[in-house]
Design goal:
By secondary structure, this protein is of the alpha+beta class. It has helices at residues 88-96, 101-110, 164-178, 185-196, 206-216; strands at residues 3-8, 18-29, 34-40, 46-51, 61-64, 68-74, 118-124, 132-137, 145-146, 150-154, 233-244, 248-257, 260-272. The protein has one domain (3-272): Penicillin V Acylase, Chain A, CATH 3.60.60.10. A 7-stranded antiparallel beta sheet has the order 3-4-5-6-7-8-9, covered by helices on one side. It is globular.
């Protein structure tokens, strides 16, 4: 069950403030093939990890040099239809299209039934036009929802659903970013990574049990921590994205190697948005 915390501040009032701070965990089967984050596409414009599962593909989180960002989580449900489209394409397609956030999510909403349930966040970080951010959950509102400046949490339910671990993580995230003006960028990244790797369990959680029903009952305690750990499934990628008031992007990914929880690779990317 992936988890995302983010602060959206399209018009930061203080110098060196951040327009976007995002911290995300990708939870997945350890042996599912994927590539660590890197630039891809014909002009190296898009930055993301890649899902290499045969017949699926796409990505769970990415950003491009024009300021388009998208992030995806699955919606926890008792059963999953295996013959539906892969949800990772929803992020990849947005990053490679010229459609704006709202128009893209309107199209996605019209075809939401072709996918297993999901949540999708899209953003356009563009100083000239003003930053915008939208959310669409296929189990939520019929229309994409514009996001106001603020702090948000998203896991495998609708945006800001009060799961215990989501509330706990959001509180830690809020405390960390309150210090961001006083912390060097590298220290802020480390503080956020520390939050993402918190293994404290928040069990029982009736909300998760009610949504996951019989599927989640035998493994519920494993899923109630920010960092999920089980023998073959869990948190295998941490991602931090910072976008400052000048359009400077810092993208940090810490990802598991060789399906081994003791082997990790950290990659850092920095670039300036192109308007």
């Amino acid at each position: 069950m992936c988890i995302i915390f983010f602060k959206f501040d399209p018009r930061p009032v203080s110098k060196n403030a951040y327009r976007l701070i995002l911290a995300s965990n990708r939870d997945e089967y350890y042996n599912r093939p994927s590539k660590p984050a890197d630039f891809w596409g014909t002009n190296n414009e898009i930055l993301s990890g890649l899902d290499m599962e045969l017949g699926r593909g796409g990505t769970w989180l990415g950003i491009n040099k024009r300021g388009k960002m998208a992030a995806l989580t699955n919606y926890l449900q008792p059963t999953k239809e295996k013959n539906l489209k892969g949800r990772g394409a929803l992020v990849a397609n947005f990053l490679s299209t010229d459609l704006d956030c709202f128009s893209y999510l309107k199209n996605v909403a019209a075809e939401g039934h072709l996918y297993n349930p999901f949540n999708l966040i899209t953003a356009e970080l563009n100083t000239a036009k003003g930053d915008v951010m939208y959310y669409y959950g296929s189990k939520g509102e019929a229309e994409p929802v514009p996001l106001q400046p603020g702090i948000y949490g998203l896991s495998s339910s609708l945006l800001d659903t009060p799961w215990k671990k989501l509330q706990f993580g959001k509180q830690l995230f809020t405390q960390a970013i309150k210090q961001c003006q006083d912390l060097p960028k590298e220290e802020l990244v480390q503080e956020l990574l520390k939050i993402l790797n918190n293994e404290e369990q928040h069990f029982p959680d009736p909300a998760i049990e009610a949504q996951g029903k019989d599927f989640v009952q035998p493994i519920i305690n494993r899923f109630t921590a920010l960092c999920v750990r089980s023998p073959d499934y869990g948190t295998r990628t941490n991602t931090i994205i910072l976008v400052d008031d000048q359009g400077q992007v810092t993208f940090t990914e810490r990802t598991m190697l060789n399906a081994d929880i003791n082997q990790w690779k950290t990659s850092n990317f920095q670039f300036k948005l192109q308007y």
